[in-house]
What does this fold into?
Amino acid sequence: MQAGVRRGRDAKICSMTSLPILSRAQVTPIGRARGLDEDGREDLARELANAVEGEVRFDGHNRMLYATDASLYQVEPVGVVIPSSVEDAAAAVRFCSERGLPILPRGGGTSLAGQCTNLAVVIDVSARCRHILEVNAGEKFVRVEPGITVDDLNDAIAGTGLFFAPDPATARHASIGGCIGNNAAGSRSVRYGRTSESVIAIDACLADGTRVEFAAGSARRDARVAEITRRVVALVRKNEALIRERFPKTIRRNAGYGLDMILQQLDKGVAEEDVNLSPLLCGSEGTLAMTLGAKLALHERPKAKALAVLSFATLDDAIEAVIPILATKPSAVELLDDLVVSLARANTEYRKYVELLPAPPGGSGELNAVLYVEYFGASEAEVRERVDALKQACPASPVQVHTNATAMMNAWKLRKAGEPLLHGVPGSRKPITFVEDNAIPVENLATFVKELRKIVESHGTRAAFYAHASVGVLHVRPLIDIHDEADRERMRAIAVATADLARSLGGVMSGEHGDGRVRGPLLERYFGAEMMQAFRELKLIFDPAGLLNPGNVVDVAGDSPRPVASMTQQLRVEPEPGRPAAFGSVETSFDFSDQHGLDGAVEMCNGSGVCRKKQGGTMCPSYMATLDERHSTRGRGNALRLAITGQLKLDTVGEASQPDADVWSDKGTMQTLDLCLSCKACKTECPSNVDISKLKAEYTSQRYRRHGVPIAARIMGQIRTLNKLGAMMPGMANAVNASSLVGGVIRRVLGIDGRRTLPAFSRSLEGMWDGERDAKQSVDRPRVVLFGDCFTMYNESSIGMATKRVMEAFGYRVELANAGCCGRAKISLGLLPEAIDEIDATLEKLQSVIEDDGVVAVLVAEPSCLSAFKDDWLTLKLKTPIVLRAKLAKKSFLPEQFLHAAWEKHPKRPAMKAPAGRVLLHGHCHQKALWGASSSADMLRRVAGDKLTVLDSGCCGMAGSFGYGEKRFDLSMQIGELVLFPAARGMTAKDVLVAPGTSCRHQVHDGVEKKAVHPMVYLAGSLA
Ligand SMILES: Cc1cc2nc3c(=O)[nH]c(=O)nc-3n(C[C@H](O)[C@H](O)[C@H](O)COP(=O)(O)OP(=O)(O)OC[C@H]3O[C@@H](n4cnc5c(N)ncnc54)[C@H](O)[C@@H]3O)c2cc1C
Ligand code: SF4
Ligand code: SF4
It folds into this structure.
């Protein structure tokens, strides 16, 4: 089957080497800087590398990895700097300033309006400028560098009982610098306000590289600040009437520059020298100054919390309830509409959460909208009182109240799934982010929703409404096919009409996510020409040469506002008739039809940056260890998208024997993919289910098809044969491996790092298994089949024997299937045609087991082999019919998973000993991604009870053959050090470390010289 191009040949990701949206004023300085051709860039990169200590990346590949944020846009930057410190960031600003180069400060790059994409030198402070400088619990403030994320900050200061309150949904991966840049706020803004309300002072770097502090009174200490403050205050006074008239009065407002916040200070009688300009930087989208540090106000963590969930028959009913609810002083009121609820009902994972909600009163009792009302309080009594007030405020609505932390977390799950669920809307129209940010006075919210629905429907589409009802911010996402010009025309028309509607109701079109490229063109329509002129004057006070994030918020050329048409220019995805045909159709080994083909699959990443989180879950181990955008799932998704769709200037390896060969052998893309561990975590943890391990395997396979398979990959792919040979004379094979001479040769040929031990061989499991005797002795017992994976067969046959012993103790007859390999090694190495042949052969041998209903389960001790059965085998284009594969997937389990799942049905339940010490479980990454660590933990808990601790250890760092690689050993160890190694080192003699994955056990051995055991070995040892 051909991996079809979505919408035939008309779809293309546009090439962004052209089309900068800079005005004349910004083009001039770039021109002065020797142009932007490759030679000019190389010179610049060299000079910049001398001027800063950090990393300078000006090559085409790395530039393009910074061309996107979480918005619809893509603009190739001039280059990227990753400063080593905030001083280094200031040095980079100075360098750019002296050469007239535009500058784009960047944190997590999670902006939704396109403000973090530009033709500029990107200064990424997220990796190394992330220190906490001072925590003052007494005075409730903290000083931080700009790259630290909100959650990292709050985790670090948890012991103080205080927290930084603004809570954008991206708090795990959004930086403080970015929160200031976007004036971020979240669900609880009704109680704590926006970032601007928590910023006390900003350590800023002006466009010319001068460092200043913006704080109350800093004008008294610093002549430069005094001058800027004097001019800003004069500008505000001059435009006072206009500011009062034009600025929205909503709690959430994030359009233009926050001149109203300066006027508020003057209204309070603050003297000019004491005016604090730091709030003005909030929401300025990196256009006024670069934030190098901030002093932030902290709040006390609530002592008690409650979450009330209310169901409604209609969206209107829900919105009408908001005003009475606000009188009860909630910390958050969040809305989900009928579209999201219906998507949740259709989703296997989220249906249960809808079913748990109370039926709304009246009519058919059908639930069409939900409000989540949260209360924070100093005591449980206070919170209870508020909930009682809520019940009185909404007497007709059934209310479900949660006060237990787990119950609250579970209840929030449906609200938090709102956005990801929308991405699952079937069809080519998707919920697009462009009118998602309106803030409307709550009393007008019902009218806004009614009228906006009419606007959207008049353009032949529909929209979902969800988010922060408490402050009138609704994330409205109309369904639009961004590839289609007619829909893009609809998009522009809906955007203009929505902005007008918001204004007519006293609201604003940018309430939370800012203006950027998508709403910048609407600013003049909203504020009027005079106010825009004031914004331009403000920009020139701070940045006279127009170098900081040029073209955003205002265009200092001063001629005309950016046209509405620009809203749909420089999109990541644009129709392009000239797309090279070679990229359009390619024979793939995986089936990508459920993602609209291979190029649909590489477009799945929406840039939201969840894969840049540093704690919780497994995605993405290489980012967690390196903090490098390039080594995040997003970096890899972007690299693949850009390479496959022909947008990268390719730098290829080998001879190009076919017209599209270069696409598959681009060095930059290969290097970006190289540190992916193929752990599968992104397949399930990424909200858009971007599956890099599958894409990496396909990309590598396409290269091999065109350029041939390297010898090391060929040998590594023969893991079963190699293990089988080793298991024939395990003692001798192990001695040979351990010898420095032969071991050294093996390492050199296979590219294995010298610090790694090679896997040991055991006697073959088949040789130890007496099937005939078993068959005679257990003829009446239910049958289970143990699949003989390569490791259980030849490296650790004790696991197979332990499985047999335990299963027999539970009353089963255990048969061994020595059916061949699952293909895992070949799949991970990208040897896909070879894997397909091998898997079909294995499936043929397993056919009788699959069809025999007397076999109640097929047990696979190694999780990465089971993941092949249950995941890869279902999407590879095998010859074996899919029904057979699906039947096998359904009856296949980890042995301990089966023991727990079929607990009530076992013929026997033997007594088992409780452990003497703790039992620590490190789950394998494939297992965690596909079935959760509970697939081992549930059974272990039956034996170990609360002595079991499930480590939040992500990936061990070994991931099959990944950690053996010479260039990967250090990273592999760094990943191990994140959680697993410290936990293993902390074990006492009585504790046991259980790890189902063979590579994880090997990693523990190499990393901390401790022994980890398979769950079945642990369970066998626990049999009384
Ligand atoms: C799924 C999703 C949900 C979101 N939910 C919310 C939400 O609930 N509330 C909300 O407010 N936003 C939300 N956002 C938008 C965004 O995540 C936040 O505004 C976040 O605070 C941006 O942080 P960042 O580090 O990613 O900033 P970036 O995107 O890196 O930068 C944001 C802006 O600030 C500038 N900037 C960054 N660092 C600096 C610096 N050091 N100095 C000067 N300027 C700088 C950039 O140039 C850019 O203009 C959401 C985004 C997504 C994808
Ligand atoms: S890979 Fe997934 S989690 Fe990462 S940015 Fe893309 S969509 Fe978000
Ligand atoms: S497979 Fe694992 S390592 Fe690779 S991108 Fe996904 S989460 Fe990261």
Remarks:
- The longest strand covers residues 304-312.
- Residues 1-35, 577-582 have pLDDT under 50 and may be disordered.
